[in-house]
Amino acid sequence: MANNSPIGVFDSGVGGLTVAKAMANLLPRESFIYFGDTAHLPYGDKSPEAILQYSLEIGNFLVDQGAKALVIACNTASAIAYEELVKTLGHKVPVFNVIDPVVEATAVHGHKNVGVIGTRATVLSGAYKKRLLEANSTIEVASMATPLLVPVIEEGLAKSKISTDILAYYLDKPDLQGISALILGCTHYPILHAQIVEYLQGKVEVIDSPLIVAETISQVLDAKNLLADRRYGVHKFFVSDYTETFEIIARQFFGNDLTLEERKI
Ligand code: DGL
User: Fold this and answer.
1) pLDDT tens per residue, range 211-221
2) Is 61 a catalytic residue?
3) In this predicted structure, what is the pLDDT of residue 236?
4) 3-state secondary structure of 35
5) Closest to 175 (Cα-Cα) out of 102, 111, 116
6) Given 40, 162, 187, 223, which is the most exposed site by the fewest CB atoms within 10 A?
7) What is the Cβ-side half-sphere exposure of residue 59, based on CA atoms within 13 angstroms?
8) Please, what's the b/e burial string for 26-39 (b: 16 or more CB within 10 A of its CB; e: otherwise)?
9) Catalytic pick from 19, 69, 71, 74?
10) Phi and psi of 238, rounded to 5°?
11) Given the CA of residue 79, which atom of ligand 1 is nearest to it?
């Protein structure tokens, strides 16, 4: 039996659109209902209590809107709020985080020295390190918070000299030397994927998380008979604080037909 309801997706801002875009490319029949919590961005510098509260409110909002599945398209919220979202909403809809599929793919590729970059909250949570070690206890994990990257991306400066300089500042740090794979542990960072690959000159595999996450979600929804059999309705995009700048940047991420609707949480 097909299910033509939308897939609910959320992030603190526009970064989760990298995951929504990968899903839209892979699953063209699906419609999405997206929530960017722009009023509370960045999550990466918030307390776990605040991140949990926002995530639960958004999760409930998306499920109330009729979402058939919930995708936490934010590493910070995945690290802090996944278990609680499964507890409170998992009996209604399948809940996906963006960390587990990436950890599995990295472990399967046989990497032994893995770097993880993400927000402060993600790195402090230790979620990647814990799950990578569960997948393979011999993996050496170097995690580093790279908090300057999200504002640069949200400001639309991803392709500027500023972003190149900031990347060089982080990627040259001793912590990340000797790694064979780098996990972009923040859904904003795939915007910088090409620059990071170029900077690392092919010496390090840069893990493409949106595609990996989209493939996992597709497989699970298929196994649960939850994939749509036709395109039903249009994508909807909500933000908790509307600005024209967010709309312009969101269009660059997802496509020009995107319009943002404000919904306070
Ligand atoms: N996109 C979010 C993530 O994946 C973080 C951005 C933020 O700090 O709000 O962690």
Assistant:
1) 999 999 999 99
2) no
3) 96
4) strand
5) 116
6) 223
7) 31
8) ebeebbbbbbbbbb
9) 74
10) -115, 150
11) 10
